[in-house]
Amino acid sequence: MSEGKVQQKQQARRAEIVAAAQRCFAEKGLHGASVADIAREAGLSVGQLYRIFASKEAIIEAVVSEIVHA
């Protein structure tokens, strides 16, 4: 797979996780939604999610950034 396609796939996966996190946070709140909940909502394993985001805090930052720049 070319470098550009890999980056596009990673960006798409990241966007899917952010959207899943938004849904989880809306339903359960920031403290109530776990990384496992977000991974499940995104259709990923927890390990796959952690390959893209290092922590729950990083996911929260991405969600806030998405909202601010929308």
From TrEMBL:
Keyword Transcription set for record: yes
Domain of life: Bacteria
InterPro entries assigned: Homeodomain-like_sf, HTH-type_TetR-like_transc_reg, HTH_TetR
Lineage start: Bacteria, Pseudomonadati, Pseudomonadota, Gammaproteobacteria, Enterobacterales
Every HTH tetR-type domain range: 11-70
A Pfam family it matches: TetR_N
DNA-binding annotation, residue ranges on this chain: 34-53
Origin species: Klebsiella variicola
Coiled coil: none
UniProt keywords, alphabetically: DNA-binding, Transcription, Transcription regulation
Protein name: TetR/AcrR family transcriptional regulator
Gene Ontology MF annotations: DNA-binding transcription factor activity; transcription cis-regulatory region binding
